[in-house]
């Protein structure tokens, strides 16, 4: 994902000298190469994220287009006031790339996990929130963010995400993407956990259960019409997210259905009002919190066995 981001940003930097890459000691070797080629378009603020966001707001006020790249937990939790007051309140044209979201920083524990970011960010006016699941989707999201006038937050993984799209894929902000057909139940998901959901759907298929998988890559603005059409289908509904089940994708879908009077019973799968436990690789931490393919499969299977009819 990091390579996809830097490659997409490099193309934008080449064509628009107003674009600025803002780092906080979280760049890569690719960023160093970019800095040599575009020394006036790369600024490293060090471990000073509050200053980084405040300066980015000032750059945008002067007509620049800053891409702020740092750990997601630091953008959202450490710098929320600056994100709210300096960027969103002023509707500044700042692009925020939260790197290593969800459980990607698996060895560093809950202080570095970004598992409550969607809840406060969805509440911020003027902010577009995008959660790409694969490198090609991230590339499309970066290009779309450049075109959008106003603040954008991209929730980016960094765990060698599996690619589900070919070179013909076109990213369209605000539109859901069906990833797998199925008739018995529908699973909404977003971000890097898509690969685990797709594996869980294969496990369900082995049990004779046909699962439809929907990728909701844009959390705000939500594809209300597309999601409501999906929720009119028969069967059970699930949301799966690398996030607290409070305030994330499941909450957004539930709120939407309630507001439109659609009687949908939705089961939310994610962190259940808790911080993630355990350390290790991302795969190990997902498994410890029952958010790997096997855990998702078991939770869906249990709901089907004990579930209420639709």
Word description of this protein:
The protein has 310 residues and is an alpha/beta fold. The chain folds into 2 domains: 2-156, Rossmann fold; 177-305, 3-Layer(aba) Sandwich (Rossmann fold). Helix content is 40%, strand content 19%. It has 12 helices and 12 strands. The chain has helices spanning 2-15, 29-37, 49-61, 72-78, 80-88, 118-122, 135-147, 194-206, 224-231, 249-259, 282-288, 293-306; strands at 19-23, 42-44, 65-71, 95-99, 128-130, 152-156, 177-180, 185-189, 211-215, 218-220, 236-244, 266-271. A 7-stranded mixed β-sheet has the order 2-1-3-4-6-5-10, sandwiched between helices. It has a 5-stranded mixed β-sheet with strand order 7-9-8-11-12, with helices on both faces. α10 (249-259) links the parallel β11 (236-244) and β12 (266-271). α1 (2-15) runs parallel beside α7 (135-147). The longest helix has 14 residues, at 2-15. The protein is globular, with a radius of gyration of 19 Å. The chain starts with a helix and ends with a helix. The model has no long low-confidence stretch (mean pLDDT 94).
Strand-pairing-aware structural class? alpha/beta
From the 3D structure, determine the CATH topology of the largest domain. Rossmann fold
Can you tell me the CATH class of the largest domain? Alpha Beta
Sheet bearing the most strands, described?
Answer: 7 strands, mixed
Spatial strand sequence of the major β-sheet: 2-1-3-4-6-5-10
DSSP strand content: 15-25%
Order of helices and strands: HEHEHEHHEHEHEEEHEEHEHEHH
Care to count the β-strands? 12
Counted up, domains total 2
State the distance separating the first and last CA atoms. Answer: 39 Å
Q: Which superfamily, in CATH terms, is the homologous superfamily of the largest domain?
A: Thiamin diphosphate (ThDP)-binding fold, Pyr/PP domains
| Mean pLDDT score | 94
